[in-house]
Amino acid sequence: MRRFWSQPLLRQLFIAVLLLLVPLIAAMVWAAVMTFDDRVDDLRDEAKVAAVTTAVYVDKYLNGLDLLAATLGLHPAVQQLDPVLADDVFKRTLVSQPALLTIALVTRDRREIARASDPDQALGRDDDWATMVMTTGARFVSPLQTGKRQIHSVVVAYPVRNVAGEMIAALGLRIRLESLQAVFAAFPLPEGSVVTVTDQQGTILARTINPNQYIGRRTPMTRPLEQIPPSEQIVGVDGVRRMHGNSFVRGGPWVVSVGIPMDLAFLRAGALWNRSFSVLFLGVLGWTVFAVMMSRRFVRSIHLLESAAQRVAAGDLRPLEPVSMPSEELAQLYSVFGLMVQRLNETREALDRQMAEERQIREKLQSLQSQVIRQERLAAVGLLVSGVAHEINNPLQAILGFAELLQMQHKLPDSVKADLRLIQKESARACGIIRNLALFARQQPGRAAAVRFADVITSVAELRQRRLESEDIELVVDDRSTHHVMAVFTELQQVVLNFVVNAEQAILSSGRLPGRITVRSRDEGDRVLLEVEDTGPGVPPADEAKLFQPFFTTKPVGQGTGLGLSVSYGIIDSMGGHMGYRRAPVGGAVFYFDLPATQLDRA
Fold first, then answer.
1. Which CATH number is 346-446's, of 2.20.28.120, 1.10.287.130, 3.40.1010.10, 1.10.10.10?
2. 371-386: per-residue pLDDT in tens?
């Protein structure tokens, strides 16, 4: 050490630079390795997130098939195993669903009732799926199948059950796997990334890169599904090493794998390496030049410390530049001063982190307060509804009483008496609605009673007859039902009124005047059916499957909420009935529902 201090100042500076470079280079190598590992971890997280996202999209795709199969299974043509009507329904469904290749209906005795296929891409008949559905009584997804023109597909089969819950047939949907390619193409993945869907045997069902070359082949590492990790580095069937994220598709025995090339980790780490080495080079060069200048003028060391102290006093806590001092005392002083700046900087960063955490806590607290306020508003709305219902009920009772008193006068004309009876009846209905509002506010269900469809139809006709006549629309009632149903009268009135109002609006919007609305009812065994038919334009085939979905409406913005049919569907379903739609022979729409007859009528 003494020999070192006895050397000329320039040589001391040169030795100090060499000694400084050794730990810096070691630190840079360590940082480079850690940077690469971090980029690999980022790549792993990116692949896992992409795989989970892709699996969610595939699940949504399969859920759409489940909804389509449930809708087809409830169709009257399928329930009645009618070959002609079922063929027509399947063909229309095939036109609206380009991803479907075949729709087939097979009975329990393995007899095919109906089948609709694309003539250019039809596959051979295969009822293995029907056997599996009949055996398990649950949904079945077939292995990969390859047909004409190298079209790859799988069969998703569902059991069809009747009203009693008995399995009467099997419904098979053959889907084109190439349709999944369009779903994957929308994902923003790095160049060279691949999305693969494999089944439980390891067979590739879909692939974004060269699908025709690899679909149908098995992956190099075929394993049981439970042994597939969430992420792994493997060499794919195309010989490229990628970081793969794996996720299971809950709707089918499939695995979605998203592979991102490992070269991307080297590219990302290389950009950071170039930046770090550039910063290192510039830092060492600047430190050397500054040290040479300090060796020529000793006094400038004092000025440097003074300027550094002033900078810290002004609030600038950036780390000090590494500078060689001409003496040990100045070097120690400069080192202690740099340590002080570092500690101050660490303290400020800790305070910044603490403030950020407190800000996050405040934001979460504000969010919770907003939720509490919304809950209180909902409770207040419930109390308001209950109070308004009570207040409106009092004047309605007065209207009812005076209407009854006026009817007792014998000298009133018949037309006036008829109007008074209508006032009495509609006031009673309003009281029923008020009671339902009060029950809803108290979260208590209304009471069901024996109701005839004739009474419901009559009440709706009295409400809309004059309005329809003024709009040049004829209301025809064809009531042939004799049985009673167990239901809430006002709820049935709401459903039928909704059907009639929708038919009226459809006729007016289409301009097909004069129009006609026909309300029919009849007994069908142990059930009672009600239909409302109109002479409007009907429902487009593309919208038929969405008629009873909440918030779906074909009306212009501001003229419909999309809740009428969905609420009506829920009312009929809660009474054990079924609701549906079909096209009228004259091109209009027929909305219908049926309810079970009361036990008294059955006896």
1. 1.10.287.130
2. 556 555 545 655 666 6
